[in-house]
Amino acid sequence: MTKLLDAVAGRRSWSRVTADAPTHEELLPLVAASARVADHSALRPWRLIELRGGAREKLGAAIAKAEGDRHPSTKPLRASLLIAIVVSVKKSSKVPAWEQEAVASGVAHMLSLLLSDAGWGVFWRTGSYTRSKPVRKMHKLAKNEQLLGWLYVGGVPPDARPGHRKIVDAESFISVL
User: In angstroms, how far is CA 79 from the centroid of its own chain?
Assistant: First the structure.
């Protein structure tokens, strides 16, 4: 197998990470490489938002407001770096909105693979509140934008065990016409 196939096959979600996180400068080449996903008309219909420190607490308050809770959610505090994935739909007669959302999702997935390959623990989190008004307002989204979720990024715990995933029977997911 190639190194890339090994990296992709070994990918897993890390629901528990340490407080370590890549710096902004360490993220830049990974983001640039992530932008190489298929992108019809090169619209680049996405952007990413780093949330660190107090921004995570603001997100916790926005989630609480969206869910009608009195206490801020602690979910955003589970990693010291959250990367919000935003689809920024561009007007196009050739590229529908769903395809632009697929590009933004591709960038997020590619970034999660690159972060994993660099040794970071990553988990893509969504929830019913992802597209709520309070969460949308907290991220300062424009009218043409939607939040797709967050990559929670941190160090891999030293006592972490390998992830377990059922092997996919590829034959049952591919057919020939």
Answer: 13
